[in-house]
Amino acid sequence: MRKYELALVVNAKLEDEARDAVVEKAKGYITRYNGTVTEVEEWGKKRLAYEIQKMYEGFYYFIQFEADETCPAELERHVRIMDNVLRYLIVKKEA
Predict the structure, then answer these.
(1) Which of 2, 8, 17, 57 is the most interior residue, by most CB within 10 Å?
(2) E strands of 1-95, at which residues?
(3) 29 in helix, strand or coil?
């Protein structure tokens, strides 16, 4: 099992429940593809470096997880088409 980190920037105009649903959906995709979520960090609302979809702010989440090599590709395939996710990045962490 390798360690990865998923960074999500979620639409800041959403209600708390909707933002939590987006994060839970991403965590669900991780567990669906045999990964285990180890930590979820919520950084809160931050100003974006540049305008994305006519928005200047977003909620930042960092999800640490362990999974095999196929999970990140499958996770990216699903997160790419999720509504309310402005940007995402999956990074392999050093051991």
Answers:
(1) 8
(2) 2-11, 36-52, 55-67, 85-92
(3) helix
CA distances from 12 to 55, 60, 68 (A): 8, 9, 32
Tokens of 50: 């540049």
Strand order across the 55-67 sheet: 36-52, 55-67, 2-11, 85-92
| 70 closest CA partner among 46, 36, 95, 34 | 34
Amino acid at 43: W
55 token code pair: 């928005």
What's this model's pTM, rounded to 2 decimal places? 0.92
Contact 74, 29 (CB under 8 A): yes
**Domains, the chain, ranges and CATH?**
2-85 (3.30.70.60)
Positive/negative CA dihedral, 44, 38, 72, 24: negative
